[in-house]
């Protein structure tokens, strides 16, 4: 947790979960309860070796504790990348592949998909609705994105009080803006924004209706960095950037941040603080995050 006033970082202690439980966290989303502004809830993709899952934590503002609440599992949550919460027991997720890499056969199939893909039918957006009882394992999940909508669905963000879902595609280099059916949660394409660069996660800029989108301007450098030889090579440089999608201009993209790789290469997540004029950004394989002054 970072205090944008002081730039002080606080490491959170995780409580309420057995130490033997795998926590290999990926995409996250924060849900703020309308009736209690002293607490937030954190949804996170968890690449548990026992199976993919979405885990839910609670956090009391001002504390240094993240408390485990519950876990959601379903066969449709198979290769989750991002999660966008609609309530404490319902959410959207993106599956970025068709095949999960666990086990000998699945690993072979996944390697074939990585080599011959991506295929538009292999990636989708799923909506899940679970029992409100944390002790219950009852959950229903279904695909809600149109057929062949995404070769590689990535980041996801709910805006407009849940009426709009925005989904990034790292292969298409797009942000798809979906209308969410209030009853069925089926997604209908409203607009597809061409970004000009591969896209990862996205976030709402507080106090505005604009969206911050993390991008990879140099895909070749990204692939090289993520290869086995360079995964932990922090001296390897590759361009990183953040776009601002301006809602007043129908989500027209403009550049908010760019780095030649000197500060960070694989920039996969960012939060913008317009009050203090800062952006906080990190990467899935980076050993640190950055805090930069920006003109918001």
From TrEMBL:
SUPFAM superfamilies in the cross-refs: Calcium-dependent phosphotriesterase
Q: Could you tell me which InterPro entries the record lists for this protein?
A: 6-blade_b-propeller_TolB-like, Serum_paraoxonase/arylesterase
What is this protein called in UniProt?
SMP-30/Gluconolactonase/LRE-like region domain-containing protein
Organism field: Cladophialophora psammophila CBS 110553
């Amino acid at each position: 947790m970072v205090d944008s006033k002081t730039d002080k970082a606080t490491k959170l202690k995780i409580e309420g979960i057995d130490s033997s439980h795998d926590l290999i966290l990926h995409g996250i989303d924060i849900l703020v309860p309308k009736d209690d502004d002293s607490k937030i809830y954190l949804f996170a993709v968890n690449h548990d070796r026992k199976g993919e899952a979405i885990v839910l934590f609670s956090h009391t503002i001002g504390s240094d504790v993240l408390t485990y609440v519950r876990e959601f599992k379903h066969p449709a949550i198979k290769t989750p990348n991002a999660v966008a919460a609609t309530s404490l027991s319902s959410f959207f997720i993106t599956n970025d592949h068709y095949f999960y890499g666990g086990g000998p056969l699945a690993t072979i199939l996944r390697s074939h998909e990585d080599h011959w893909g991506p295929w538009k039918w292999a990636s989708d957006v799923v909506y899940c609705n679970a029992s409100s009882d944390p002790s219950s394992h009852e959950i229903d999940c279904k695909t809600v994105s149109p057929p062949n909508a995404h070769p590689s669905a990535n980041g996801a963000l709910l805006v407009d009080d849940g009426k709009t879902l925005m989904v990034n595609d790292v292969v298409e280099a797009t942000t798809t803006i979906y209308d969410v059916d209030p009853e069925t949660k089926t997604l209908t394409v409203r607009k597809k924004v061409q970004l000009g660069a591969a896209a990862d996660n996205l976030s709402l800029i507080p106090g505005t209706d604009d969206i911050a989108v993390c991008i990879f301007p140099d895909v070749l450098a990204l692939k090289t960095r993520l290869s086995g030889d360079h995964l932990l090579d922090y001296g390897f440089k590759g361009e990183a950037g953040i776009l601002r999608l301006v809602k007043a201009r129908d989500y027209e993209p403009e550049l908010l941040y760019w780095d030649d790789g000197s500060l960070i290469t694989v920039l996969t997540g960012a939060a913008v603080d317009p009050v203090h004029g800062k952006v906080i950004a990190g990467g899935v394989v980076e050993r640190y995050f950055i805090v930069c002054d920006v003109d918001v």
